[in-house]
Amino acid sequence: MAESAQGQSALQLIQELLQFYEMEHSLKIFTSESNMKSDTKRDKVAADHNLKPANDEPVLYRLFANFLAKGKKAAPARKEEKMEKLSQMPVQMKEDESEGEVQRY
After folding, report:
1. CA of 16: how far to CAs of 41, 44, 59, 67, in Å?
2. How many domains does the chain have?
3. Which residues of 79-91 are buried (b: 16+ CB within 10 A; e: fewer)?
4. SS3 state of residue 77
5. CB 41 within 8 A of CB 82
6. Cα separation, 27 vs 8, whole angstroms
């Protein structure tokens, strides 16, 4: 996991979370098992993800909150796109022979 840039980034986010909550025992085990060589610098982790570190929450929380907020903003756009596609679809019409009315299918 630590070989790829994405894996390294994920490990740093977890390490920063453990540091933030001062989970020293868990941090020692995590650092040992993940082969992390040094402590994660909070400002660097935040900058790597285009975030400003907040004093009251770990960087991982901020990243996750931003992800969820973007998902909520994007959802209505997707619905609008579907409605637009539906409105552009051709409507098949057939004249009802018995009443002379046009029916939409």
Report:
1. 7, 10, 7, 18
2. 1
3. eeeeeeeeeeeee
4. helix
5. no
6. 16
pLDDT per residue as tens digits for the range 10-56: 999 999 999 999 999 999 999 999 998 778 899 999 999 999 888 89
52: domain range?
5-104
DSSP readout, 5-16? HHHHHHHHHHHH
Tokens (6 digits) for 66: 């931003």
Place of tokens 């994405």: 6
Q: What is the pLDDT of residues 60-104, one digit of tens each?
A: 999 999 899 887 765 555 666 666 666 666 665 555 555 555 555
